[in-house]
Amino acid sequence: MSLSRRIAARSVRMLGVTAAASALALSASGTALACEIGDFSAAAACDGAKGVITVTDKDASGVPAVITVFLENNGADFRQVGTEQTVKGSKKGVTVSFAEDWEPGAIYRIHVKTVKGKKLLVDTDINAGENLTTPAKACAADTSTPTGTPSSTPPSTPSGTTTTPPAETATALPSPSESTSDSSAPGAPSASNAPSAAVQESNLAETGASSSTGLIVGVAGALVVVGGGAVFFGMRRRGSSHR
């Protein structure tokens, strides 16, 4: 084999390997940054005596998602819980809450919709077909009661004085006795009760997501085939030259 053909075969082989590696890297990065319904989860929890529906977004790409929660009844939407909320997820997860005094065993549908630019990425429910079922035990009621200690002041003791006429004045009449009395009633302050703070509102279910993962994987496969063909062609030409 001539030097020029050897160099050409080596160049084709390197080009094929590089193209395949680039395609695989592109596919992996595209999959990691894609916003999918699997990045979202929902749960029924308690905030003191109040119930809440929480939704967590672990979409590392940070695409804003609109979350809507519905109470289900016999497989249909009975009512919407509060208003829809927008959440921008992260790798660690970002949680939004919907205030809802849920009943044990109640079912909620949580819907997620994400749009990037003009492209619709997600428009489906969390755990489609299963939805969210609340725990069998309701949130515990707040039984705490405030206590107050009224203060009291004992009444004052009445006092009286009597004046005696002088001895040398035989005709002087005795002075009338004087008496005064004071009393004060104790004051009782009213007890105050501080109500517990209310919680925010919270929704959703049907799994599915749209992404370009299939197209990227197809391109990667095609590039791998081209690289392999180039390597095989180079090795065959090299073997024929040695015979």
How are the SSEs placed, and which strands pair?
Layout: H1 3-33, E1 40-47, E2 50-57, E3 64-73, E4 76-80, E5 85-88, E6 94-99, E7 107-116, E8 119-125, E9 132-133, E10 159-161, E11 178-180, H2 213-242
Helix pairs in contact: 1-2
What is the CATH fold-level name of the largest domain?
Immunoglobulin-like
Percent of residues in beta strands? 25-35%
Count of the separate structural domains: 2
Query: Roughly how many Å is the radius of gyration?
Result: 42 Å
What would your notes on this structure say?
With 243 residues, the chain is of the alpha+beta class. It has two domains: 1-34 and 211-243; 35-140 and 200-210, Immunoglobulin-like (Sandwich), CATH 2.60.40.2420. Helix content is 25%, strand content 27%. Strands 3, 4, 5, 7, 8 and 9 form a six-stranded antiparallel sheet that branches. Strands 1-2-6 form a three-stranded antiparallel sheet, with no helix packed on it. Strand 7 (107-116) and strand 8 form a beta hairpin. Helix 1 (3-33) packs antiparallel against helix 2. The radius of gyration is 42 Å and the shape is rod-shaped.
